[in-house]
Specification:
The chain has about 110 residues and is mainly alpha-helical. Helices cover about 70% and strands about 5% of the residues. The chain has a two-stranded antiparallel sheet with strand order 1-2.
């Protein structure tokens, strides 16, 4: 396997329906984690409807949804390219959070 294949095309894990519940623990973990990201997106949208301090908050919420969708995909297949996408989305979340908190919610400690 070439380094490019390893960096972009390697499949690290795949859901195996015949393996049983315990062998597929990562699948269930990722589905629960996706639900958490969707809840956080809902909280951001709720905050937006209550305060409307920034038009960027719906984008921030959509980024949480996107991260949740990557977790749903990861529940079935974990590939190298997906890890890169997740890293980019995570970086976007952190940058958006930082920008929103500095400019619109300076005293807030949560989402």
């Amino acid at each position: 396997m070439s380094p490019a294949d390893w960096l972009w095309h390697r499949e690290w894990r795949r859901f195996d329906p015949a393996a049983g519940l315990l062998a597929n623990w990562a699948t269930w973990f990722n589905l629960v984690e996706a639900g958490c990201w969707f809840v956080l997106a809902g909280l951001v949208l709720r905050r937006f409807t209550m305060f409307r301090r920034s038009a960027w908050e719906p984008v921030y919420a959509a980024t949480f949804v996107l991260f949740g969708l990557t977790d749903i995909y990861e529940a079935w297949r974990l590939t190298s390219w997906l890890l890169w996408v997740k890293a980019l989305v995570c970086a976007a979340l952190l940058l958006q959070r930082r920008w929103l908190h500095v400019h619109h919610y300076p005293g807030w400690k949560t989402y």
